[in-house]
Amino acid sequence: MHPQTPHTTNMLSTLVTLLPLIAAQNPLFQINSRSTSPLFRAILRNYDDFDLIIHVENTTETIVNDFLAEYHVLTTIFNHDFDIPVTRPGSLQCLHLILFTDPLTFSRFSSNHNNIYSKDVIMFLCKENSFLSFQENYFRIPHLSRSGLVAVVRFDSGGISVYSMCFYCGGSTGRLLLRQRLEFSQLRENPVRLAPKKFDNLNEHVIRVVYIDYFPYVWCVVKSNGVCEEAIGSEYELLKTVSGKMNFTYELIEAPNRSYDALINGLVSGQYDMAIGGISITNSRREILQFSTVLRFEDLAFMFVYKRPFRLKIFYFSGVFNLKFWASKAVGVFSLATIVYFVAKYFNDKVHLTYDRITQVISHASFEQSIKLKNFFPGRAKSFICILLSSWWISIMLLNIIYKSRLTSFMVDKSAPPATLEELINEGYNIVIDKNQMQNYVKMLNNEEKILLNKSTTVRKNHFCDLRIYIENHRAIIVGEIAKSLYHTKMFCHNYETIEAGDITTRFFKVTPHAVPFTTGVPFVDVFNQKIQEIMGDGLLKLWKRQLTIKKKIYSYKGKLSKKNSVPVETDAFLIQFVVFLIVISASVVSFVLELVYHACRPN
Question: What is the pLDDT of residues 403-429, one digit of tens each?
Answer without folding.
Answer: 443 333 333 333 444 445 566 677 677
